[in-house]
Amino acid sequence: MAARTLANTHASSIASHIAQLLSTASAITSCLQTLNPQNPNPIPPTSTCPLSQFAPFLSPNLVIEVIKSQKNPNHGLFFFNWASNLNPNPNNYFHSHLCYVAITDLLLSHGLFSTASSLLQSHRRLSDFAVAKFIKAYGDRGDIREAIHWFHRAKKRESGRCFFSCNAILGVLVKANRIMLAKAIFDQIMKEGLVKPDVYTYTTMIRGYCKMGMIENAKNVFDEMGCKPNLITCNTMINGFCKKGLMESAMKIVDQMMETEDCMPDTVTYTTLIDGYCKRGELDEAMKRMDEMVSQNCEPNVLTYNAIIYGLCLNGKVDEAKRMMTRMRLNGLKDDVATHTCILKGLCVVGKLDDAARHLKEMVGLGMKPDAKAYGVVVNEYCKMGKADDAISLLKGMKSKGINPSVSSFNAVFRILVESGKPDRAALLLKQMNQLGCSPNCLSYSTVIDGLCRAKGRMHEVEEFVEEMRQTGHRLDASMYSWLVKGYCEDGNTDMAISVFHEMLDMGYVINLESFLAFVKELLPKQKIFEVEKLFEEMSRRYPGIDICKYRRILDEHQQSTEVQEGRLGCNGMDGRGYGG
């Protein structure tokens, strides 16, 4: 009883202390609002500064709380500098390591790199740990070059012994998918032996290799770890195997985990396995893993159930998927948009498109907000069934509900419109895309331009789309250049066809055989054999690796055909003595 009373008293004292700290931090923040944050140095002298009233209460925890509360980094810096130079300093206050961490995080989060660097250098606090924060911050901004610069700076300062910076740069490079550069640095670390990699180092490399599909490299790092893998390491490796469909290899790691006491499989482990088996169509194995999961007192979560439901739906077992959703609810879990998107997919797989469209509407009635992915399932199915009007109607309805459609949904509609000979409607929808909340990508333009090039007399509209493409940063590829050449040829515009052919070669692309045939058939009858031969020779010279014989054959056959036709025309214009009539 006495012990319980003592514990309650202690808890009450802690709560009171926290409340007082938060209250003081709030008062300091209010005071800072009245000061000029553009001047990081407190003026007038600290003894007359409005903040002086708080000097007796300063502690590292209070300073950290104040800094973290600042939306304006200059307020935080002003306060930090004031607390660094207290006069008088009644409690002999000085900043702790975590105070420097807090102010560094605040400044870097607002992109004030030079300010943070100057501050730490002036206080002689630019340690390996601090530099690692700079590396990560630059990486988060996508500035890989500067992140690498700071890593080399740390290596020089610490004579290679920069553990935190090593881990930071590897994390940045893996996140940016620069795995080969990460590998080079990792290999150098291992070769130099100045830094001993920890479990985070190895896990980062394993994650990077798995992201890029380099599963053997990941396995080699895992097998050669110089320390014991933890749960995150094992789950990362299992995820890599499952994504490749290597379920046997994934299970070997699970078996190894089961033999330990401090690295037992968790919900993430089993969910990853279940998802892997479902995507391989092995539903029985997936269910076994779920039963095993429950027997190990490991509770399935929403992601676990969604993985099973997705697998059932992919195999057309929609009724079973719905029963699994009921089981999920009975276990106290709430189905989400992803759950119902799986059901939509299943309904489409079994050909129940009308039911899928109805289910999409019912989701709204359940208080859910279907996302672009959910709508996309139904839009794609409409397109597969050739129902372009329904697909377009759904896309336009999304905008009215505040949902921006995905570009893949638009591209599916463009494809079906072009294939059904309706390039006019495809072009109109392409022009409306931005208004409907989605920007076209290269495939969007490519599909519509292909359709317009096949329809005669539409090259002026094609030119407008090409110009729009270029203005938005998209580049034409070999297929698009080939369609342009063919389109201009079929419109009889040989000058533009020749011009685009030249541009295509300059950009490093080779025309396809179909468009080259159209080019030859259009230009030879117009006595432009010289232009054709010149472009053919230029293409042969620049790109000797192509199958030039096929292009030569097309040119020779049509050249001979043209000469025969010209000969016949000549004969028809002669009288019996060889003279014209």
Number of strands: 0
C-alpha geometry? globular
Order of helices and strands: HHHHHHHHHHHHHHHHHHHHHHHHHHHHHH
The rounded distance between the terminal residues' Cα atoms is 132 Å
Mean pLDDT over all positions: 90
| Overall SS class | mainly alpha
Spans where pLDDT lies below 50 across 5 or more residues: 568-581
Q: How much β-strand is present in the residues?
A: under 5%
Proportion of helical residues:
55-70%
State the helix count. Answer: 30
The biggest beta sheet reads: none
Rg on CA atoms, Å:
34 Å
Q: What does it look like?
A:
There is one protein chain. 70% of the residues lie in helices and 0% in strands. It is an all-alpha fold. Helix 17 (318-330) packs antiparallel against helix 18 and helix 27 runs parallel beside helix 29 (529-542). The longest helix is centred in the first third of the chain and has 31 residues, at 2-32. The chain is globular and about 100 Å long. It starts with a helix and ends in a 9-residue tail after the last helix. Mean pLDDT is 90; it is low at 568-581.
Key features?
single chain; 581 residues; mainly alpha; disordered C terminus; globular
List the helices and strands and how they pair.
Elements: H1 2-32, H2 60-69, H3 73-84, H4 97-109, H5 113-122, H6 128-140, H7 144-157, H8 163-175, H9 179-192, H10 199-211, H11 215-223, H12 231-243, H13 247-258, H14 267-279, H15 283-295, H16 302-314, H17 318-330, H18 337-349, H19 353-365, H20 372-384, H21 388-400, H22 407-419, H23 423-432, H24 442-454, H25 459-471, H26 478-490, H27 494-506, H28 513-523, H29 529-542, H30 548-572
